[in-house]
């Protein structure tokens, strides 16, 4: 990889020409957002995902549904793909191609394109900045270790944002920084309930999620009263003729409190906020049903 030119979510912003074709290593939100952008611009896109479905850190149904939507558009998605090697090949005096050798279900394959896009995640940029000298600890990924008030092992140092690890979201980083300042100078004890932080993937259709997944709930309780609604059953989706996607609700099997909501669909990024409030404040399904909503809307 050190000897092959490749794009990232930062370098791609500096390009002035459209790639003819792209092989993307990774199947997280960066690969999916940029893969679809480049596809809509006219590039042939292949996405190589190491696990069994894209968006491996989210509810499996979401990844499978979004993969179905991508493939319907003409984007090739290859799952269970273990990358072994990348190499650049001269095709002529004016152009190069890059090839990615992978193993899929024990079978060797090679994918070739004009450009390579690497979207395998990022690491906190904390090396060699003097943290060891002042007694600030980091974990194996390089993330600064903090307590729930964002205080490090050095009581005079607080940390916030991407440097303390997941979730690496701009909105979360802003909230963490705000709380860190309050705690450092005012002893406010401000914390964040990360369970109630929503995640959004800005593809088409959009993906949004908050709270516990069905698998996580099953692992903890051995049962799950989960329900999935297809967007094809939502009147607004029918009206605008975009019925791609689904909504899954995970509720507590005894109290009926909503503990997780996971969705793919039009305007999912807008709809997730009602679900986030439900998870944050322990609302039940009946609380939502008893609240009169405007009709027809996606929410």
Mean of pLDDT: 95
Share of residues in strands = 15-25%
How many alpha or pi helices? 7
Number of strands: 12
Overall 3D geometry?
globular
Provide the spatial order of strands within the biggest beta sheet.
Answer: 8-9-12-11-10
What is the quaternary state of this protein?
A: single chain
> What helical percentage do the residues reach?
25-40%
Order of helices and strands: EHEHEEEEEHEEHEHEEHH
> Distance between termini?
45 Å
**What is the SS-derived class?**
alpha/beta
Q: What integer value in Å does the Rg equal?
A: 22 Å
In the predicted model, the low-confidence regions spanning at least 5 consecutive residues are none
User: How would a textbook summarize the main sheet?
Assistant: 5 strands, antiparallel
Architecture overview:
This protein is an alpha/beta fold. The chain is built from seven helices and twelve strands.
Write a brief structural summary.
The protein has 299 residues and is of the alpha/beta class. The protein is built from 7 helices and 12 strands.
Topology:
Blueprint: E1 21-25, H1 29-40, E2 44-48, H2 60-73, E3 76-78, E4 81-90, E5 96-104, E6 107-113, E7 115-118, H3 170-186, E8 199-201, E9 206-211, H4 214-221, E10 225-230, H5 235-239, E11 246-251, E12 258-265, H6 268-281, H7 285-289
Parallel strand pairs: 1-2, 1-7, 2-3
Antiparallel strand pairs: 4-5, 5-6, 8-9, 9-12, 10-11, 11-12
């Amino acid at each position: 990889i050190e000897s092959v030119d490749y794009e990232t979510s930062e370098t791609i912003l500096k390009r002035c020409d459209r790639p003819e074709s792209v092989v993307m290593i990774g199947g997280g939100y960066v690969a999916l957002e940029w893969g679809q952008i480049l596809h809509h611009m006219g590039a042939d896109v292949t996405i190589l995902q190491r696990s069994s479905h894209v968006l491996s850190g989210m509810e499996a149904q979401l990844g499978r549904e979004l993969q179905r939507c991508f493939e319907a558009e003409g984007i090739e998605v290859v799952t269970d793909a273990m990358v072994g090697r990348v190499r650049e090949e001269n095709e002529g005096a004016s152009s190069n191609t890059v090839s990615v050798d992978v193993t899929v279900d024990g079978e060797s394959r090679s994918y070739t394109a004009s450009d390579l896009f690497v979207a395998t995640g990022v690491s906190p940029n904390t090396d060699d900045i003097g943290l060891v000298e002042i007694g600030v600890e980091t974990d194996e990924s390089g993330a600064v270790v903090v307590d729930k008030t964002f205080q490090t092992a050095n009581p005079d140092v607080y940390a916030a944002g991407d440097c303390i690890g997941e979730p690496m979201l701009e909105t979360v980083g802003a909230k963490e920084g705000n709380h860190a300042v309050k705690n450092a100078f005012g002893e406010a004890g401000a914390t964040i309930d990360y369970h109630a932080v929503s995640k959004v993937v800005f593809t088409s259709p959009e993906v949004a999620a908050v709270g516990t997944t069905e698998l996580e709930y099953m692992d903890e309780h051995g049962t799950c009263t989960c329900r999935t609604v297809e967007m094809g059953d939502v009147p607004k989706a029918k009206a605008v003729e975009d019925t791609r996607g689904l909504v899954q609700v995970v509720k507590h099997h005894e109290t009926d409190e909503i503990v997780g909501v996971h969705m793919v669909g039009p305007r999912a990024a807008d709809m997730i906020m009602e679900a986030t409030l439900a998870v944050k404040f322990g609302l039940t399904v009946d609380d939502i049903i008893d609240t009169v909503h405007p009709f027809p809307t996606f929410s």
